[in-house]
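Entry 14. Ran structure prediction on the chain below.
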Amino acid sequence: MGVPSHPNFLRSKLTHEMRLSLAVLALLALLPLAISSPYWLGVLIVSMYFAMLSCGWNLLAGYAGQFSLAPAAFAMLGAYTTGLLAWHWKVPLWIGLPMSIVVPGLIGLVLGRIVLRLSGPYLALTTLSFAEIVRLVIYNSIDFTRGDQGLNVPGLTDSRIGYYYVFVAALSAVTIGVFCMLRSPIGRFLLAIRDDEIGAASRGIDVVRARTWAFLASCAICGFAGGLYGTFAQLVSPELGLIAQTGIVIAMVVIGGMGTLVGPLIGALLVYVASEMLRDVGNVQMIVFALLVIVFARFFREGLWGLAREAVARRRQASPGAAKEA
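Output, structure tokens:
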């Protein structure tokens, strides 16, 4: 019973998942050799945007055990940070994009110190309220944000394939950053708090401080994803912060595998690409994904990655017996 929580086991598990994550990223980097359609390249780019949001939300919910309903709101804040700096003050993107990390991260730091003493439904409701307040403020500040008209954002490049590899590089950086954080002492603190908050506190771990660092990192990741997406779409609007966008992110993480490094990557890519394939059918894709979330949350807590790992484990257990019978 104590083996799964052993530090060496956790490090080995993280390392294994990181290798698989790098394999997924390498596959993404090679896909343009087989896919030349600008439309499908665009679909993959947006799926990588959602993969970054999923990594950020999974860091908080999957590893810190804190259920936030604001990842889309922080992505919107990151997008508007870059967009407003360029629109009002002509700030170049090489400054605007880093600010899409800094501003949401600082807001997350302040908000985290306030709300992370709460837990369960209270934390979820607080972050939901924050997300809706921010979205409505942006929606109604027409003179500054242009409201629902949308705000034009300059692009990084005119090349679709160029954008594709920018997103591959950004997703790789986010994945490696999350891996390094989880391998550090703060990562071990988060896992200890998630598994036994009272026990972690009794051993001297500052629970609120560790959760605040996770919240800051999660918000910064989501903000960066939003800022980068804004330069790709070249238009940002309050729709980026809709609660439905957060619902999609949660579905991706749950289906891929919450509390795993590779799960959010797999879930985001599969869910968004499948959603595009089902677009012609109507809104049935939302029903399908909602049902999948219910099924996976109830019966397969580690998602598709957990199912694949169990299948491999069963196959390995069966092979020695098969060899003896032979």
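The chain is about 75% helix and 0% strand. Will compare against last week's run tomorrow.
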